[in-house]
Known about the structure:
By secondary structure, this protein is mostly beta strands.
Amino acid sequence: MGRWSLIIMLSLLQACSTQPVVPVADRSITPKQAAGTQPAREEAPLQWGGVIVESQNLQQTTEVQILAFPLDADGRPETDATSIGRFIALLPGYLELEEYAVGRRVTATGRFTANREGMVADSSYTFPVLACDELTLWPEREPRPKPRIHFGFGASSGGRGFGSIGISF
C-alpha cells in the first residue's frame, strides 16, 4: 500500500508543477529576418519571445511591441543575449496592460501575417506582425540578495594551544 500511495502522490505533484513552453513552432526564423523578407512558410506557426516595449488595447485586439531575444530550451527569452529584432504580437480581445507591463518577459506563438512600417525613437523600422495563438507571461525575476560573507577567528588555551578560522557565505 505504501508504494502505491507514494506513486499516486508523486503523480499528483507532477501534475501541479509549472510546465515549460513546448516548442511546437518554428524558432529558426528571427523577427529581424522576417522583417527583411516574408517567411516562406506564412502558414507555419512561429515562436518568438522577448521583453515588452509598448502595449495598446484597440477596439477588438491588443498590440504588444516586443524587443526579441533568443529563446532557451524552455521557451524563455534569454535577455542576456543580443537582441534579434522587434516584432508586434497581435492578440484578439483585451489584455490587462498592468499585468503585461513594459519590461515583462513574454513568449509569443502564432502566425506571421505581414510587415508593418513604424518608428523606433526617430528611426523608421519594419515590424513583423505575429497573429498570436498564445502569449506566455513569465514570472518577474526576484532580485538576488546581496552576498553575505562572514569571517570568524577563535583561540583557546586549556593547557593546549588551539586556534580556528571560520568562513561562511
